[in-house]
Amino acid sequence: MRIANQGGRAVLLGRTSALDVAAASDGRFGPDPMSVYRAWPAFREWAATVDVDAAPAAQAVEVAGLDAPVPAPEQVFAIGLNYADHAKETGMALPEHPLVFTKFPSSLTGPEATVRLSGDRVDWEAELVVVVGEGGRDLPASWEAVAGLTVGQDLSDRTVQNRGDRPQFGLGKSFAGYGPTGPAVVTIDELQDGHDLGALRIGCRVSEDGGEERVLQDGTTADLVFSVPELVHRLSAVVELRPGDLIFTGTPSGVGLGRTPQEFLKAGQVLTTEIEGLGTIRQTFTA
Q1: Nearest-CA neighbor of 160 among 195, 121, 128, 115?
Q2: How far apart are CA 203 and CA 219, in angstroms?
Q3: 34 with 40: CB under 8 angstroms?
Q4: Confidence (pLDDT) at 12
Q5: What was the pLDDT predicted at 209?
Q6: Spatial distance between the Cα atoms of 11 and 22, rounded to a whole number of angstroms
Q7: Average pLDDT for residues 198-208, to the nearest whole number?
Q8: Where are the alpha helices (H) located in 184-227, listed in sequence order?
Q9: Phi, psi angles (nearest 5°) of residue 86
Q10: Sheet hosting strand 112-116, strand order edge to edge
Q11: pTM score, two decimals?
Q12: Contact in structure between 4 and 13 (CB atoms under 8 Å)
């Protein structure tokens, strides 16, 4: 199934249409997009029986009309240097343990958004984002706690991130709109049908003034240092993962900071991020 947020209400997405969860379930599940994760086992069981495109109440939907699929998670984790090729381009050794920081939830925005740049050194980072289902502590290294996956961008102000004599990742990555996600949360069972969970193609490209797109990142999740199940296990050994939490799992090589010369986002550019089987998100930048 694919779960999205349309106008602040949880919807199921079909091939061409959306179905309001609260209305279709006769109020068994509420309209709040976060509520489906708090009732994840029951919701998953019910939603598996629904044929969205065949439902009389289903309505046409466009990605531009969708909001962040998980708009208010309690916790947002992010993992640094989690692709071997990205670690190599930064000149840093592969981490022995996950390098964990946070993006504050107020940075989240939907799949198509206009984002104001905070400075002249804002970087792109295409990311696979995990959405936690039931959660808990001391979870095994498996997919059981994962509700689904979505597309994300870990937009990063490198000046703010590195100012002072010690890096401060969280603030530099948490300006308004610096956590675009979407277009939907895709459950693992649906993604497994035709896709290799361990090797999803991930990347982003940029264009400006309506011109031709230029590829910035083109990688695969097979290059992850710590897999999704391993991250769930490692994180839950320390903190309690809660329903609807997000985990930004890291970015492949090709970021602006690692280029020669370095390159950063500019006003007027459009950034398109795509992950195999999950969809596409797009941001337009202003000064």
Answers
A1: 121
A2: 6
A3: no
A4: 98
A5: 81
A6: 8
A7: 96
A8: 188-192
A9: -70, -40
A10: 112-116, 279-286, 269-275, 201-208, 214-220
A11: 0.97
A12: yes
* 58: phi then psi, degrees, rounded to nearest 5: -65, 145
Burial of 95 (0-12, 13-18, 19+ CB in 10 A): middle
150: nearest Cα among 168, 176, 131:
131
pLDDT tens string 51-102: 999 999 999 999 999 999 999 999 999 999 999 999 888 888 899 999 999 9
Give pLDDT, residue 155: 98
Query: E strands of the chain, at which residues?
Result: 2-6, 9-13, 17-20, 59-60, 76-80, 99-102, 108-109, 112-116, 122-123, 126-132, 146-153, 156-157, 179-187, 201-208, 214-220, 246-248, 269-275, 279-286
Q: Which two tokens stand for residue 237?
A: 């050994």
**Residue 192 CA from chain centroid, whole number:** 18
Q: Assess contact for 254 and 218: CB atoms under 8 A.
A: yes
In the chain, where the domains are located: 2-61, 76-286
Q: What is the pLDDT of residues 234-272, one digit of tens each?
A: 999 999 999 999 999 999 999 999 999 999 999 999 999
* pLDDT, position 251: 97
Between the two ends of the chain, the Cα-to-Cα distance in Å is 37
| pLDDT tens digits along 156-185 | 999 999 988 887 899 999 999 999 999 999
Sequence-separated (6 or more) residues with CB below 8 Å from residue 94: 81, 84, 87, 225
Q: Which residues of 257-280 are buried (b: 16+ CB within 10 A; e: fewer)?
A: bbeeeebbbeeebbbbbbbbbbbe
Q: Does domain 76-286 have CATH number 3.90.850.10?
A: yes
* Backbone phi, psi, residue 48, to 5°: -65, -15
Do the beta carbons of residue 157 and residue 179 sit within 8 Å? Answer: no
For 20-53, give the DSSP string: EHHHHTTTSS-S-TTHHHHTHHHHHHHHTT--GG
